[in-house]
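Reading a protein record of the kind used here takes little practice once its layout is understood. The fold follows as a row of integers, each naming the local backbone shape at the matching residue. With these conventions in mind, the following record can be read line by line:

_____
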Amino acid sequence: MTRLGVSGEPSPCTSTSCNTPGAASTPRPPVSSLRVGFVSGGDRPLTSEPPPRWARRRRRSVARTIAAELAENRRLARELSKREEEKLDRLIAIGEEASAQQDTANELRRDAVIAVRRLATAVEEATGAFQLGLEKLLQRLISNTKS
């Protein structure tokens, strides 16, 4: 009878042939009494025989479920990434539009300042011309009253 090592492979040592001298000998149970738990909770002997059909089906079913969940997670991640990219694109477009509107507002403000300055200059010139006309009219009145 062979023993199973840590890896689950048969060991060349038998229960009597591999006791190292000086090492504490620990008796081990025979292979038929070693048992491994299944996903379903059942036990079976730890041997090289294949698992029962129901266990293989259960493993395949679990593997398919996990694969489906992973595929769904990848799909959801792609969808979320696409939505976030669309949001970023919209924010960039809004920012560009706001920047363009700010540029337009600045141009309008500069044009308004220029127009106000021109208007102020025109008002000063008109006021000056009006004052000059009044002074001339006053001088004529004064000269007409003297004569």
Q: What stands out?
A: The chain has a mean pLDDT of 81.
